[in-house]
Amino acid sequence: MNCQRIQESFLDYQDGRLSPPDASAVREHLKVCLDCQREWAGLQEISLKLDRLPPVAPSPRLRTQFYAMLETHRRESDSHSPFVQMRSRFDRLFSALLPARPALQFALACLMLGAGLFFGTRFIHPAVNEETAREIEALKKQLASTNEQIASTNQLVTHSILQQQSTGERLKMVLASLDLKKGDQLVVSDLLSALAFDPSVNVRLSALEALYPHATMPAVRSAVAASLPRDPSPLVQVTMIDFLAASRDPAVSSTLEDVSRSQTYDKAVREAARRALAQL
Predict the structure, then answer these.
(1) Residue of 231, 230, 149, 158 whose CA lies nearest to 190
(2) How many separate domains does the chain show?
(3) Which of 232, 228, 263, 267 is nearest to 245 (CA)?
């Protein structure tokens, strides 16, 4: 076995999942290879740090910071929009055309409102409004579908980049995200991608631990609930259920009920789902 295969087998070797011949090959290789010895020592150090991590309570200010971030992003987007410049031009045009006295402005507004109601009831056919509403609804659905495709593509790209790194490097990346204080949307997306796609149980557990400060975000809770039925590890599934129970979100009750009733899940997973339902 070469160094790459030996390092890829470290987690299985640590958890005792390797066959006796493969485990013996790993032990013999570690006796003579300094690079693999350093990689093994780094993995042990990371595992010890993960075991010693205290439970992280979600910050009550996370929701406020998240919406403040969204508002800042919206303002920055509007500042570069051509529609904002067009709106400012219309404002200048109307300020030049409309009378300066408030009483005259009010009288002109009432006159325009009455004229609009009169012509609208007499000449605008209701079918036009219904057709416009259908077109707007179709555009909304198309936009939602496009956003879902973009999100799916971003997850696949992130997953592809992560798979090019060793297991130890992926663990270090997830562990580093625990020190972040703000709800960085990019970091949250990377953690959700690791939770959904990473083949390592330890990496998925570490990603879920790092997501606890962001549990107040509905998108995070929905993503964890969606990953629960797909995860092959009962240990990770039980940890996901504990995460959802700690969030106290009634929206996840249907997912937990399905898990508690389905015989396709491990018995311990079904019991954890029943306990979580009792807490919601």
Answers:
(1) 158
(2) 1
(3) 228
Cα gap 126→124, rounded to integer Å: 6
Q: What values do phi and psi take at 217, rounded to 5?
A: -80, 120
Q: Tell me how far apart the alpha carbons of residues 182 and 214 are, in angstroms, rounded to a whole number.
A: 9
Structure tokens at 8: 């890829």
**132 lies in some domain:** no
R_g (Cα) of the chain, nearest Å: 28
Q: How far is CA 222 from CA 40, 122, 195, 247, in A?
A: 36, 49, 13, 11
Per-residue pLDDT of the chain (280 residues; tens, 9 = 90+): 688 888 888 888 888 888 888 888 888 888 888 888 888 888 888 878 777 766 656 566 666 766 777 777 667 665 555 555 566 665 666 566 665 566 666 666 777 777 777 766 666 554 446 777 777 888 788 777 766 665 555 555 455 544 545 666 666 566 555 555 444 677 888 888 888 888 888 989 988 888 888 888 898 889 999 999 999 999 999 999 999 988 888 888 999 999 999 999 999 999 999 999 988 7
Residue by residue, DSSP assigns 60-120 as: TTHHHHHHHHHHHHHHHHHHT-HHHHHHHHHHHHHHHHS-SSHHHHHHHHHHHHHHHHHHH
Structural domain containing residue 17: 1-45
Rounded CA separation 151/142 (Å): 14
d(CA 83, CA 252): 40
Overall pTM surpassing 0.85 (yes/no): no
Q: Indicate whether 10 belongs to any domain.
A: yes
Tokens read off for 94:
């109307």
What is the DSSP annotation of 221-259? HHHHHHHTTT---HHHHHHHHHHHHHHT-GGGHHHHHHH
